[in-house]
C-alpha cells in the first residue's frame, strides 16, 4: 500500500503487511493463487485461528500461495473509492480480482455485509450470477456455511466443515481445470466432499411463500451436503511460525487449539454441532507447538483454546508440561473458555506464569433451566469455583447469561438475580445478558425468538434486581443486533436482496455498536417485502428448514 494513502487513515498498521512470519511467495512460480478473506477489520481477522491455519497449510505447498485481505475501515473505503484504487492483499498488494480463489471465513452473521464491500472494492462482481469467466471463485466456509442460503446469491461455492484436509484438494482441482469454463470449475468442485454450489440448486416455495426445500438442477447432485471433519485432529497441521502484527489485535497472543468439539450436549449450543465430534490434541504435540511458536514470535502469552478448556482430559498434566518452559521464558498461560464444573483451579494454584486476570463462565440461566437444557452446572459449582479462585489469586469473574430461553419464567430471572448478588460478594463481576437465538442445527432450532417487548420486560426486572456498583457491572447486548443476527442465520435466499439493499444504503460493520444503524436494515427489509417474523417464528415438525440440506 502506498505510503501516501497510509498517512490518511487512522490505523495504517492494518494495511502494511510484512509482519513477522508473513509469507511472500513468488507469484509466477505458483499456478494457483488464493486470497484468504475475513470480512472484518484486521484486528479481528488476525485473531481468527482458521485463517492462520489455512494460511500455513496453503503456503507450505510449492504450487500454491495464500495471501490475506480484511475489510477496510470506513476511512480506507472512502480513500479507495476516491482514488479509484482496488482493494488488494497484504502480501503482494495485488487486487483481489487477480486471484483464482477467494476463501471467505463467514464467522459471524453481522459481518456478512462487509463481504459485499470487499468484493466490490476488489473488482469482483458482487452477485455470483454476474461474474465472468476470469473472475475468481468465491468459496465460503466457517460457521456461516452451515446456514448458507441468505448468502447464496453472493457465493459461488460453500465448504461445509473443517478444511485442513480439503483445502489443497480444492486448489489442486482448480489447477487441473485451469483454462476450463467457470461452469466446469464449479462442477469439478461440486464433486469434492463438503462442497455446495448454490447455482446448481433452485429453491421452491408453496403458494403462500412457505419454503419447500431445494431442487437439484443437474443429474447426480446430492440432495444434501454432509459436513467434512479432519481425519486426524491430533496430528492436524498447526502454525508454528505465528504471525506477529504491528498493532494490537483482539486476541494478541498465541492461541493453541488443544481440543475441538465438546463433550457436553447443551441443547442451545450450535458450536458443539459445527465443531464436533470432540477430539483432543496430545500434550506432547501441544508442547512442541507452544515452544516453536514462542521461539518464532516472541509472544509472552499462550492461550489454550477449545469450546471448554476445562474439559481437556489431561489438563493438569498439560499445564505441568508447559509450566517449566513458560517459567523459564516468562510466558503466561490463559484459559479463555471454562465450565464451572470442570476446571480444577488447584491446577493453577502456585503455578508461575499462569494468567490470573479474570475467569469466564457461562451459567446461561437459572439452575433449574440449565438442567432442562442439558447443561448440568449447579449453583454450588459456581460458588465453589469463585471461592477457590479468590483464594488462588483471581479477583474478577465474567458471567454470560441468555434471556428468552424456551420455558423461562420470572422465577428463573429471580434465581439469576440471587446468584449474581451472592457471587458479587466473593469476586468482582462483569455480567452480560444476550437474547437467546434459536440457532440452526440444534435441538431448539424450531423454537421462535422472543419478541422485543418480552425481552424489554425481562431486562427491566433484572435491572431492578441488579444495581451496578464497584463490585458488579451489568451489560445488556442490544436486542436489535440479536434480532438481525437471528434473521440472517434463519433465513432463506429471499433475504439476499435485502442484505444487498442495506449495503447500498450504507450498512457496514453491523457487529459494531457505533456503526450499527437498525433503521437502515428495517428500511431494506421493508423495501424488499421481507417479514422477519416469517423467519423468527416457531416452526412445525413438518416444516422444511432453509438449512435442512446441510447434514451435520
Overall description:
The protein has 552 residues and is α/β, with parallel strands linked by helices. It folds into two domains: 1-229 and 478-552, no CATH class; 253-355, Transcription Regulator spoIIAA. Helices cover 32% and strands 16% of the residues. The protein has a six-stranded mixed sheet with strand order 2-1-3-4-5-6. α13 links the parallel β16 (396-403) and β17. The model is unreliable at 348-352 (pLDDT under 50).
Total number of beta strands: 19
Mean pLDDT across the residues is 93
Strand order of the largest sheet: 2-1-3-4-5-6
Radius of gyration: 24 Å
Q: Please give the count of helices.
A: 18
**How many strands, what sense, and barrel or not for the largest sheet?**
6 strands, mixed
What's the layout of helices and strands?
Blueprint: H1 3-6, E1 32-38, H2 42-45, H3 49-59, E2 64-70, H4 74-83, E3 101-105, H5 112-121, E4 137-141, E5 157-159, H6 167-176, H7 182-190, E6 195-196, E7 201-205, E8 211-216, E9 225-226, E10 254-257, E11 259-260, H8 271-275, E12 279-280, H9 283-297, E13 301-305, H10 315-328, E14 332-334, E15 358-364, H11 367-372, H12 379-391, E16 396-403, H13 410-423, E17 428-435, H14 452-465, E18 472-476, H15 479-490, H16 496-504, H17 518-527, H18 532-536, E19 550-551
Parallel strand pairs: 1-2, 1-3, 3-4, 4-5, 9-19, 10-13, 13-14, 15-16, 16-17, 17-18
Antiparallel strand pairs: 5-6, 7-8, 11-12
Helix pairs in contact: 5-16, 9-10, 13-14, 16-17
